[in-house]
Amino acid sequence: MDITIIGTGNMARGIAARALAGGNTVTLLGTAAEKAEALAAELSGDVRAGTVGDPLQGDVVVLAVWYQALDDVLGRYADQLAGRTVVDITNPVDPQTYAPLTVEAGSAAQEIAQKAPGAKVVKAFNTTFAGSLVAGEVAGQPLDVFVAGDDEDAKAQVRRLAESAGLRVLDAGPLAHARQLEGAGYLHMAVQPGLGGTYASALRVVS
Ligand SMILES: NC(=O)c1ccc[n+]([C@@H]2O[C@H](COP(=O)([O-])OP(=O)(O)OC[C@H]3O[C@@H](n4cnc5c(N)ncnc54)[C@H](OP(=O)(O)O)[C@@H]3O)[C@@H](O)[C@H]2O)c1
Question: Domain spans of the chain?
Fold first, then answer.
């Protein structure tokens, strides 16, 4: 699969590392070409570098940016996102205090769906920390990736991407459940001080 990742930060690194490990093609779009080139140089596999503003390509577009940057990204790309699988990984928090934000649409993912009509929005990866994505596991166990969305084909694409990368996918239901996933992502952040603050844990369902 062709995956385009907007952003070159921690989560871009983690998701790109897994996607490449799964044999996918990854295009990284950075706010500056050098940022995408630098991250691409760290990774191995079929990885390309570009700049935010380049035309989108590929089956799946991952928005690996903070909630606060979404308006800018959507302003630039809403038209091109129509018809594509768009993965929202954000946990909306205040960037200064890390307090959770209330999103009028219900969740960041639903807000994206409103602002980018036609985009097949899937909430995923917001409960997995960047470092654990690079490693692909925590304590020898594969990561669980919770996926919510209204388009079954788009969810299936994200499932194929995650499973190709050795991750386990749990279907969390419709996009309306992104709100609960964002709550779970926040909860996972909130318990970090009690775990040593290393952000090295994983949320996993045991059955
Ligand atoms: N880190 C985690 O473990 C984790 C886990 C789950 C979910 N998340 C979520 O994942 C998202 C990304 O987190 P992160 O840790 O990867 O953040 P990060 O390391 O700060 O990376 C953010 C990226 O977004 C880029 N960016 C900023 N404004 C942009 C814009 N207007 N257009 C395009 N790109 C823009 C940044 O580019 P510049 O560097 O040039 O500013 C940077 O490459 C957040 O929403 C967060 O809530 C993070």
Answer: 2-195
Q: What is the CATH number of domain 2-195?
A: 3.40.50.720
Tell me the CA–centroid distance for residue 151 and ligand 1, in Å: 25
Asked if 88 contacts 151 with a C-beta cutoff of 8 angstroms, the reply is no
Predicted confidence (pLDDT) per residue in 63-76, tens digit: 999 999 999 999 99
* 179 within ligand 1 shell (Cβ under 6 A): no
Instruction: Confirm whether pTM is higher than 0.85.
Output: yes
